[in-house]
Structures are given as C-alpha cells and as structure tokens.
Amino acid sequence: MSGRFPRRLPRHLTGRILGTALLLLGALVVLAPFLWMLSVSLKPADEIFTSDVHLIPNRIAWENYVTAVTTVPLGRFLLNGVIVCGGILVFQILFTVPCAYALAQRSFPGRSLLFGCVLAGLLVPFHVTAIPIFIGLAKLRLLDSYTALILPFIGSVFGIFLFRQFFARLPTALFDAARVDGLSEAAIVWRIALPLAWPAATAFAVFSVTAHWNDLFWPLVATTSPEIATPPRGILYFRDEEAGTDLGPLMAGATLVTAPLVILFLLAQRTFMRGVASGGLRG
Amino acid sequence: MASLGDSHILDLRHVSQTLGGNRILHDLSLGVAPSEFTAILGPSGCGKSTTLRLMAGLDRPNAGTVHMGGRDVTDDTPAMRNIAMVFQSYALYPHLTVAENIALPLVMRECKPTERVPFLGALLPGARDKLRDIGKRVRRIAAMLEIEPLLERKPGALSGGQQQRVAVGRALVRDPALFLLDEPLSNLDAKLRIQMRTELSALHRRSGKPFVYVTHDQTEAMTMADRVLLMLEGRVIQDGRPRELYERPAAREVAAFIGAHPMNLIDLPSPAGDADHPLTRLGLALPNHRGRITVGLRPEHLRCATAAADGFLKGRVERLEYHGRDTMVTLRLDGLETAVDLLQNAQASSLNPGDWVGLACRSTDVHLFDAETGGRLHPTPGGGT
C-alpha cells in the first residue's frame, strides 16, 4: 500500500464512515429493545434473571412460544387485530379519498375553511375526544364490540390531509378529461384519483395499520371481553393470569404480535417511501 | 357577428363569464357551423380557453345559454353533449395503458355500472361481447393514427408526439358531435408541430366533423382553419375566413395581430384638405372622416420608390436584417417619430444604413383605421378634397 495510494483516507471517505457509524449507532438504539425482546423470548426462565448480560441464550427455549400460543388464544388476538385494522382502513379509504379529492380538485364555497378545519383537526390528540366518544358508544350500547373498536376511527384527518396534498399536485386537466370522457365525480375518485394516489395510499395504510395494531389505550377503554381483544390488549392477559409475570412467554407473544407489522412494512417499504417522500407521480 | 340559426352545431348566446372577480367574457355570441374547422385565435388571457370550456360543458356561464342542435344544453355535462376534447397537456391517464385510455370513454358510455367493475364486470353475460367490440374499435382508431404498436404501453413511456396521437385517438373513438382542441400542438417541437398540423387538417377533412381549435399561434389558425374568430379581451373582434383577416382586418388590433411580420401602424393627422398628406399622395381620400387616422402598411407590401422624392413617405435606413430570401429594412420616417419595416428581396437589396428611401405601395394594400376607436375606415379613390 505505498506509492499510488495515499496513506490517509480521503476527506469525504472519512466523513462517510463517520456518518454511517452514527447511523448504525442510531439504528442499534432503536433496534435494541426488539433484539432484547427476541433474545428473552428464546431464553429459558432461569436464564432471564441472571446478573450477566448475554444476548444469545445458552439454550434456545422454543417452549416459550408453545406456552404463548397455548395459554392465551393468541391466534384469536391476531385475527381480531386483522379485523379491526382492516375494518378501520377500509372505511378510512372509503371516506378520506372522496373528501380529499373534493378539497383538492373541486371548488365550492367554504373549501378553504373546511381544509383549515382539517388542519386544525390534526392538532387534536385522540385522547381529548376519547371520553365523549366513550359516553356516546355507551349510550348507543355499542361498547365492548368490534363496532366500538372501529367506529371512532373511520374518519381520519391525517388521511384527508395526506391524500389532499397528493391530489392537489395532479394536473386539473386530467380530471377535466375524465369529465369529458363521461366519468361521474364518484367514478373519477375511484377510477382515476385513487389508482394514481397508490403510493400515498400505501403510506397511509402503513401509518394507519401500525397505529391501530399497536393501540392499547382504546381497546383497554372500550372493551373487556377477551374474545375481541386486539393483540396488545391480549398480551396483557399473560400478566393477569399468572401470579408472577412469565417473561419468556410474554416476550414470545410480543414477538408474534410484532411480526405481522414488520412483514407488512418490509413488503410495502418501497411504495411507502415513495408515498412519504411523495416524489409521487411519474408518467 | 355569427347568426344564431339552427344550422349551427353549437351556439353560445350572450354568454358572460366572470372568474375570481375578473370579467373574462362579456355578452359573447358565436356559432359553430357543421363540418367547419373554426379556430379561436387570440393572445393568452383573451378568454379563448374559457370559451372552449363553456362549449365543452366543463364550466357553466354566469349568464347566457349554450345551444346544440336547437336545444338548450347549458346544464348538460360534457358527456351528454357528446363532445370530445384534446387538451394542451394531453391529459392521458398515467395509470392506464394506451388501449385503456382510448377505450375509457366508450366503456363509460356503453357499459352498465355493474359491467364496469374491474375483473368481475367482464364475467357478466353481454359484457364480454361489449368489451370485445370496444377493443375492436380501439384497434381501428389506433391503426388509423398509426399507434397500434403502442397499445399496451403506459403514456409515460411515449414521446410527446405519440401522446398527442393517443389524445386524438381518445377523442375520435367516441364519434363525437363536435371536436374541441385546446392548443393541442403547443407542447410539441417545431418540426412535429408542422407535421401534426397537416395531420389534423387531414383528420378534419376525413371525419367531416366540426372542429373548434383554440390557439395563440396565428400560423396554426391561418393555415388550418376554414374560419377564424379573433378574440381580444373577451370579445370576438373579427369573424371571417383567414384571407379576410389578412386582407381586410376589421380593426387596428386585428391588423396588428395577423401577419407573419407585424404591420406598420403610422399615426397621422386627418388628410382632409391637405394636398401634401401621404394619403392624398397615394390617391386616397376620406371625405367622411375628421380627426386623426392610423395607416396600416404590411412590410411585405411596401416597396422602395425609384427616387426618394417619389414615395408617399420618406425615411432613412436605420437597420438591415438579413432573413435569407428577404431583407428586413427598418426606416426612420422623415418628420415622424415612427420606424417602419419593409421587406425586400435580399438579392435586389443594395441599401446601406443612412440611405434615404422613398416608400411606395399599391393603394389597395393600405389599411386605414380611426385613430380613436381603432375601427376600419373605407377610403374613396381620388386625391382631392
């Protein structure tokens, strides 16, 4: 390594190595709890509470997973998660896409005001409205049902905002052409606007499903029956049932509950990035 | 102004349009004759696109009515009017293939809502035959426009000229009562534009349908149209054949707009009783007009007089501009603060800057306008007063 190659690394290369190292460190901080969860889920009970920290278990304890699946109806929880998240997502798309299209591509009196309300709605956390919604559902005798888990979330100001921003960038002539071609406004929404907004829709779906899959607050408030418990709510039954907390199976359950999300994200990753960055439409 | 007869395919009657507080159109009436190629020509912001959108039914006028075939269609949608429109940006659906783009208007018109459901609709009895028939018509149009090899591609993978053809195909396929084209060539490069001009003219002749063509390019309007409506500030200033617009412009604004080289407009006092007035020297008189006039002279109609003193106006050569076949000579007129352009055969030109030149012109090529109103004046022959 002499002569032709400089002894010291070029400046930009040093910078890149430093940057990558920092990013790796950041990734490690974010991933550490997950890695620990995975590690504990594979450890036998006597290995979990030892003074020395080791990530790889001495003996892989698959029985934690068996316990997790058999002691609580984990399959049921996962199915509930799919039903609730799927229901919420379908209704959200059904309501937010037409609304966003109207706000972006149609002119009507009060449009700016309405969009202002949507923006203001973004600032209100769900917890503020949780109590009125709870009381409303109670009066309608809808508590402790799938309806109670889905209904409060069928409209999404975030979804309206995201889709509106996307539609506002589409050329108006496209929608005029569709009108000339005989499409009704509803047909324009479903046949033209939504297919074009596919990246935005994917991004929104990831946000929505993640938020509602992981939500513990509302299922805890609105439901009591184990039959309709969503995954995070279900995991709590590990703690309730046993006298002491059985950490191994609990972590195994948590791993199983997190896995679908990770898989979903990995599948949608590319489209998701495009939707968030919203380089969006080409050709 | 256009008559409001029922022989028209489409009539706008006394329409006004205000957008965002700006009056775009004011009490505009015009008709589109069957099988005629009508160009609406005007600078940007003159209201020509607004007029086209009213014809299409994309916008509703604030006042006035739209009639088609003697029926009031003011409240009808574009589809109910059976019009087709080609947009400046082509407005092809990026997520559909070329074939699907062209087929969409037919699918929307001829298939029932249930048959339009993706995948499932095609399974319904009858839907399959309909879709096959639509496919056949799409291929026929594609063959006509020579875009058959592109049918399975997405618009993003096509060149500008190809996209243009697809847009025309989508308009043609539904056999519309009226074609509306909104500056369809302005996004193409110069060479392709000339080619598409020829193709659109041929398409118009072959289809026998009325075309309304909005453009700011006078060459497009003059070369393609049977009839040109020149619009300025929301009004039709002149409505006539291209030759009429060039030879007998109805107003100073028309004269200034039409012509490859801008017309020279010279402001002069009234010729009445002035034996040495340029008009009098040209052998023209305006017995019924008092007040200042504007004389319009096209550069291509002006000649150099054999001797400087012979011309009806005299000027000094300021600049020479070589154009190949011709040379554009700019003269500073003697005694006037006006420059005049004159087009001269480059071969014959032997002028140098600073030379004195007399201007000559046939009296029939002189356009006269009222300096106040801009309206055309009709001179009588005969020099005296």
Structure keywords:
heterodimer; A: 283 residues; mainly alpha; MetI-like fold; 2 domains; globular; B: 385 residues; alpha+beta; Rossmann fold; OB fold (Dihydrolipoamide Acetyltransferase, E2P); six-stranded mixed beta sheet; five-stranded antiparallel beta sheet; 10 helices; 26% helix
What would your notes on this structure say?
The complex is a heterodimer of chains A (283) and B (385). Chain A has 283 residues and is mainly alpha-helical. Chain A folds into two domains: 11-62, no CATH class; 64-277, MetI-like (MetI-like fold, Orthogonal Bundle), CATH 1.10.3720.10. In chain A, 72% of the residues lie in helices and 0% in strands. Chain A has 14 helices and no strands. Chain A has helices at 11-41, 45-48, 63-71, 74-105, 111-122, 126-139, 146-150, 157-168, 172-180, 185-196, 198-214, 217-222, 231-241, 247-277. Chain A is globular. Chain B has two domains: 10-247, P-loop containing nucleotide triphosphate hydrolases (Rossmann fold); 261-381, OB fold (Dihydrolipoamide Acetyltransferase, E2P) (Beta Barrel). Helix content of chain B is 26%, strand content 29%. In chain B, the strands form five sheets. A six-stranded mixed β-sheet of chain B has the order 6-7-8-3-9-10, with helices on both faces. In chain B, strands 14-18-15-16-17 form a five-stranded antiparallel β-sheet, with no helix packed on it. In chain B, strands 2-1-4-5 form a four-stranded antiparallel β-sheet, covered by helices on one side. In chain B, helix 3 (98-110) crosses helix 4 and helix 3 (98-110) packs parallel to helix 5.
